[in-house]
Structure formats: structure tokens, C-alpha cells
Amino acid sequence: MGLDHINQRTDVLSEYELKMVWNDTQCNSALGGQAFIDHLFNNPHKLLLIGPACSSTAENVAEIAHHWNLITVSPSASSPGLSNRQRYPYFYRTITVFSALGTPIIGLMQEYGWQRIATVHQNQDVYILSIEYFSSLLKAANFTLVTSETIIEDPRASVEHIKQNDAKIVFLSMFEGLARKILCEAYKQGVVGTGYVWFVYGWYRDKWWTVTDDIECTVEEMTEMISSTNIFALNRLSLSTKEEVTIAGFTSKQLEFELRERMKWEENSGYTFQSDYVGFGYDAAWAVGLMLNKSVEVLKNKVFANGEKRRLEDFTYDDSEIGSLFADLLSETDFVGMSVSGKWPLFADLLC
Asked: 289 and 339 share a domain?
């Protein structure tokens, strides 16, 4: 939809039409690498990459894409590790970096006068880095991290340590399945009730606590745990709630309505509406469209090292000068988008 809106404009890339050639990486790093190679060696020639969607795949692709002078813009890869500019110099994203999700907890602790908190995180880089950043926020705000637990499978020791340290507030940084195991074990050990506050991620599936095939609690027990305890779900807002007119000339709400209507088209029957990411995806399209539009104007007057001028269609994978120009202009791109971030550049990596 974003590309359609750009192509309909007479003031953005008026001499060009943006087209997307896509592959499904299935959130698989190996498939992502293969898809990237396929794009490189098959026509049409590419100017840049939008995606990959998943962090692990984005890390694999972005680490090598810059060697071909291709920038990578992901609407959903939120791993803090991707903020490493030495390793991923041409990686950009429209989604808030994963580690920023701990920031609202600091605000709530300040609001309610809470001083102590425990964390439990999954033993994967994305969660480890997020907790490291969260720990730095706690330290800066003079809060006490009473215990920081790493969990692989068995949650018993982690819950026991929470009890031993008399922690009443707990931040779980992990996949849905491990969160279920932790809360089930907490129920069995009596870490339940209005005296406790648990923070979990908000992108788990609906009624995720009722899936009991991987835990030793019944649906009734898990429902009691959830309903009798203070559970806060942390998530990003992909769709702005403001009535502000976006770069496309519509409000975010109007764009959402159009997208939902498009989802009814027969060609989209195999897809579902993902409200957690649609705004970030739409803004990614506009970010690269505006960057390319600005590039057209810059290229009209720019003389390159060989003494010649170039156009967009002259870009090749060994053209470091245009690749660098794309990266510089993307960093400067500023617009009102569909996502809650409002004006670009978002680059929430700066929070890390």
C-alpha cells in the first residue's frame, strides 16, 4: 500500500515507479542469506532492501548487504544487537528497538514509588542485551535490581530466588512459552495475588496463558494466576492515535481503514492483518521512497570521483559512493508517518 501511494504521487519520484521483488525468508537465517544471494544475482537490479522481518534473519543479511552497498530497512527487526553500527553500518529500522520496552517500567516505578525489582530473562542475545540496557536504566534512576535470573527451561530456581529476595515486582524478558512456565511455577510456589506485579511482553497470542500443553498447570490455575495478580503487558504502538495528517495526506486511522479494506481483496486472502507491525511497514516504504526522491535531486548536481554524473538507474553493487549517499540521506529523512513514532527519523537505536 505504501508503494502504491508513493507511485500515485506526482511530487515523489515522478520519473520512476517503485516495484518490490520479494522472497519469504520464513524467519530463517539460512533462507534469508539464500534469498539475499538470489536477489543479487537475478534481475531486476535492486537499489535497497526492505526487511527482513525477523531479527535473526536481519542480522545475517544486514551483516553482508553493506558489502554490496545495499542499505537494509526493516519494519520489525528489533534486536538491540542490530544497533552495532560497526557490524551493521547500513541497517535501519522503523520499529522501536526491543530494549526500549523496559522504559515504561521505569516510569511506572517512579509513579508508584516502587524501589525494588527482579528480572528473569531467556538465554538469548536479544533478551540478554535488553536486560543489560534495562539494568542501566535502573541504576541511573537509583532503583534496586534485587536479582537477575537467566532461564533456559526449568523455572523453579528462578522463582525460588524471587521469593528468597522478597521481590514483589518482576520483569519477564522471554518468549511466550517460557513466560507460561514461569507464571505456572509462580502459582505453585504462591507468588501470586495483588501484592505482586509481573511485566510480560504484549505480543504474545490472545489468551496465551490458556495453552497448557507445555506446563504443569491447568487452564483454571493459570486463569486464576492471571486474574488475581497484577500483570502488565509491554508492547509498541504501530498505529498512531493522533489525528495528525501523515505524509500520504491521510490520518493513521484512515490509512488503517484502507489497509483493512485491501485485506479483503482476493489476492490478499492468504494474509492476516498484523496491527503490531503495519504502521512500521508502511513507514518503511515511505522512508525509502523519500530518500530515493531526495537522491534524484542530489544526483543532478553531484560529480563523482571519476568526474561523471549518475542517475538512480546507474547504481551498481560496487558503487560505494551512491550507497553512502543513500545511507546519508536516509539518516536525514524526516516525515510524519503512520506509526506512533510520529516524525522520522525514528532510529530508536539511539536509546541503546
From this structure: yes
